[in-house]
Model the fold of this input.
Amino acid sequence: MTNLEYRRIYLDNAATTPMMPGVLAAMEPYLTSDYGNANALYREGVIARQALEGARETIAEAIGASPTEVVFTSGGTEADNAAINGITAVMRQKYGRIKAGNHLICSAFEHHAVLESIKSRKQDGFLVTQVKPRRDGFIHLQDLQAVLTEQTMLVSVMTAQNEIGTVQPVRELADLTHQVKSLNPTGVLFHTDAVQALGKIPFNVREAGVDAASFSAHKIGGPKGIGALYLCRQTPFIAQIRGGGQELGRRSGTQNVAAAVGFAKALELTLERQQHEMNRLAQLRDLLAAELLSLDRRISLSVPIDPTRHLPGLLAVTVQGLESGTLILHLDDAGIAVSGGSACSTGSLQPSHVLTAIGMSRSLALGALRFSLGSATTEADIPIVKAALARILNHG
Done:
């Protein structure tokens, strides 16, 4: 049976989303007739540049930034890497082997793009501290305060946790960070990975008080291969991709105009219905949670759900005694796409670093499932998911 012969239920919208029809239509001219290089002086280039800058203005306005503070990247991973490496490169260039401001802090449950970027800075003399979230899935102010020092130059804490859905108190964390008397002449800077927040909850860089933020288009119905990095105009930064000096010298390479236009259109369409979708998805999430928790005592929430501090469409549960990989494959056979909190590496199942960071036992973490709802999710999907999981558990 092909995918055309029955309707699958896609519940992995935190991983990627289907592109909105309006997005593809907005991109089409820049993939066909208006194909110019945005850096060229002739007419085709001018048309492309106008489209690129229009997209930049749309995104900047949506996040509360100035257009010159928005740098297009190839996605959220590049934006995270660029933020960490570009900011720390300033200190490396200014001081050679680091003499001041050599301390980096991130949460222990960051996306690997942040974790690995910060870890790689150790070879250049940086000290790295990971702040552990508590069992409720949040970074607490006192825990960050305990590790901030005058040597700290950069803190990175994600806005919305991609596996468990908790929305971190970024404004409070950023304010605390900025209060530190630092040896770094620019003070302690704060970066947030806002990939899972954009379009799903209200997010504004000024209101968040951050110095840098990362975004991605394909999480909100846009194309893959395009993201953005917000850099406050005062944020010191050295480009990590060198070449022709595009993006005001902060990211070289011919810009992907069609993708940038698609990103802007997706964000525009998403924000038009954001409040409605937040309410709708929160209701569906709570209904799904209630149905699954009533199904089997082996199922429990990964973290408590505080409606005011949780992504509306994300539900994280664990199934005691079963491995997520097995559950995912059986659900896939039933026509349901979900993800887990585990990754298979070199043939051995490893628990999610997110779940172990919040203090969950290894055995429980191995049974993690993440349901991330989206625009196509309906109330009719929930009993189907419940029935499918019931069959799996009864035969497991």
Remarks:
- The chain has two domains: 21-271, 274-395.
- Confidence is low (pLDDT under 50) at residues 1-5.
- The chain has 13 helices and 15 strands.
